[in-house]
Amino acid sequence: MVQGKGIHITMLGDFVITCNGIPLKLERTNTTKAMQALQMLIYYKDTGLPRNVFMDALYSRDDNITDPANNLKVTVSNLRRLLQRAGLPDVAIRFQGGSYYWQCEQPTEIDVEVFQAQVKYCRGLQGDALAAELEKACALYTGDFLPHLQAEDWVIAAAVHFREMYFKCVRTLAAYFQEKGDYNRLLEIAAQAAALYPLEEWKILHIESLIAMERYQEAKSVYEDAVATLQKEYDIKPSPRLLECLRRIDRSTESKNVTINELQGLLKESEAMAGAYYCALPSFIDAYRVVSRILERNGQSAYLMLCWMVDGKGHPITDKEKASKAGEKVSKAICSTLRRGDTYTQPALDRFLILLMGTNLENCSVVSGRIDANYRKDPARGITLRYKLAPVSDMASEEMFQEKPCWT
After folding, report:
1. Fold of 277-401
2. How many Å apart are CA 125 and CA 116, to the nearest integer?
3. In 197-337, alpha helices (H)
4. What is the per-residue DSSP string for 171-192?
5. Which is nearest to 187 in space by CA: 199, 200, 166, 170?
6. Integer angstrom CA distances of residue 244 from 54, 186, 228, 239
7. CATH number of this structure's domain 7-110, picked from the four choices 1.10.10.10, 2.30.29.30, 1.10.101.10, 1.25.40.10
8. Predicted confidence (pLDDT) per residue in 50-79, tens digit
9. Which residues of the chain are under the pLDDT cut of 50?
């Protein structure tokens, strides 16, 4: 299709209909019944949608619908008026032989069809030709299929199909580029995959490509981001393979012939940030152990504070999404309350560990009170904070490092 001419429909990462290069204004959201019907009709345009399948997909979960057949007629009627108002020419919703069809007389390009055709074209190719065409396929994949409808069964099935197709392209390219030693192209597809899906597999591929290019500081940043994402979003700790990436970065940095000033530049923070220092759990554990050894020598004191979230009745927060959103507010309150010399981490969705330097038990109570005060400026509804303290030592409070939420 000529660029900018005809109708282009985006279904990967979003839903947008463009006519002759101009995005159409349909409804405010892509999740109304009429918009859901439109997206289904477009996706099943070649086979059509049998009335009973169409009806079940739209209304089977709505207990308030007493006459789904009539509701379907109303939805289709609304959709026809919607398309007419949007100024989409030569488009009709046709009913024939018990099924509904999307009918468009204009040249139409749908991104999922283009993506599938590109992947199919790669079959039978080899070597550089295969790699070049697979790169084009990866560039066409811009995100999950209709992400705003991920709760719908028909969307889930299609999204998994396209996602696995994309993953297969990335894995094939990664193996080829690693064999060829083409790390620039490996980095490009690894970074894209990690941005779309922050999964450990793609984060590791991203890190390994940076290590191969001796870009160790960038690799370390990607590693820290991966660990933080795994802990916060998925509540899991790094795998042995991810930890091995860190060891490779450390070994490579140690082996480089660099000056002390260059090393210092790698070690220091990129900018002076106010508040406490946040780090991933493995780094926090190292900091804790180093501090405990220092205290043996200088006689100063430090405390480990456990902060966790509970509901209004003092019960653990069992809703992970609620705990995740509340955790962002608690983290902000902790960071703004503590000094730059203090360190904290979030080992689970509902808890935080804080390393308080050069303080005593009485001052720790003051700190928790200030955290509460800052948290109450922007609290999560129905969630309060609880605290537990232990003096820092080699043997103290090891159970606090366990990476499991309070409710398990």
Report:
1. Alpha-Beta Plaits (3.30.70)
2. 16
3. 200-212, 216-233, 240-255, 260-267, 281-298, 320-337
4. HHHHHHHHHHT-HHHHHHHHHH
5. 170
6. 50, 20, 16, 9
7. 1.10.10.10
8. 999 999 999 988 878 889 899 999 999 999
9. 2, 394-408
